[in-house]
Task: structure prediction
Amino acid sequence: MTDKEQVSELIAAKRDMAEKLAMDIWNFAELSYNEERSAREIIGILKAEGFEVEEGIADIPTAFLAKAVIGSGKPVIGFLAEYDALDGLSQQAGMTEKCPVDGMKNGHGCGHNLLGAGTVLSAIAAKEYLEKNGKNGTVALFGCPAEEGAGSKQFIARAGWFDDVDFFYTWHPHNLNTVSGIGNVAIMGANFHFYGTASHAGSAPELGRSALDAVELMNVGCNYLREHTIDQARIHYAYSDAGGTAPNVVPDHATIKYEVRAPKVSQMQELFARVVNVAKGAAMMTDTKMEYEVTMAFSDYVANKTLAPVMDKALAEYGAPEWSEADCDTALRFLRTYPKTALKGIKDEMRSLFPDDDPDELLARPLHAGVIPYDPRETRYSSGSTDVGDAGYGAPTVTVYIATAILGNAGHSWQNTAFSASGIGMKGMLRAAEVMTLASVRTAEMPELIARAKKEVLDKNGGKYVCPLPDYTKPPINTY
Ligand SMILES: [Zn+2]
Result:
């Protein structure tokens, strides 16, 4: 039997377990740092499969490390499971119209139930493969909460838990099948607090110093700053304390929340320092005091160029999930739920992704039936961010995207919550588990390739992982 056939057999044998786990996590629909039931169920399954589990790592109650040592224990194969849901995206399974579950607010609109269950399945299959074939290695599955919130992987990395990992293979539910050269930008979030002096705005304005004026001037300054930043930089803000509701009182307090993004973590840090300077200038102009605290930060993610071809080859060998006529009918019903303007956008996207195909023909069976090959020359960034970036600054990391939803489907939508509990989602999850397992057991036998992949990480991180967060920023359990 080939390695590919063996992996498929191991995955098929645990299929029911994985599908049940995915549906249970979908039903729990727990938000960032509150994934108690999801984490407990995953831990129970991994313990029963012979993994040793350390719970509450990096001071995050729902984070854990599950480890299985086989033979010499080298190399260490890392997996990253996520299992958090999103606020406000509750949706009934199988319904092709917006229809929240009674009494439920949250939903798996990013498919992290599939991500988590598929990763657990892959780790178990990798362990069994190594054992059955008399190979060596440690399978290390990290339970990573709060990817949709302030993240966990950067805290886990900062606490040193990733130091011994030789490589990570992970996946994310998507609408295409690909190991992509497109990366995710780095991000930093911070609260800027301004303190002034209260006074009667009408009778004694000369005695007042307005914290609200300071915030407004900071925003004006940042809006001008945008003129002189790199193309892919993003600066966004939202008021969390506008200083009160009375126009006749000079506000002596105001707080604004900023998020700064740029492709590489170094570029993001440089830009963030300029935003801090603008805040200092605003405080000086208004004779107020300014303090800020960093609340979250992720490094950028780019697929490790040395290992991406291994995952790409595994994906090419397996191909896309095998979609049935029934899957295509379901997909069509979902496609019709998009408004006309969105459908036009989806068609434009199809034209740019598949220039040789007729978009109407593609959308007549709107599930990705092919594979887009990895192309390292295509490296560019999407404007979203993920804490997988911090895994990649510590160890070689590659994400494979597998279709679990229709072509052009928008993430973080009620449709996505529905797909995450559908037969389409389950097929994608099983395929992802096969691809990750095959890539990881093959890589485990290529020590020279692992060494080159690690060298690529060291060239990128300057010798060792440095967390973009200041030491004072702790996991914001229940405060983010
Ligand atoms: Zn996600």
Summary: The chain has 15 helices and twelve strands. The pocket of zinc ion is lined by residues 110, 112, 147, 172 (CB under 6 Å). The first strand starts at residue 52 and ends at 55. The chain has two domains: 3-184+300-461, 186-298.
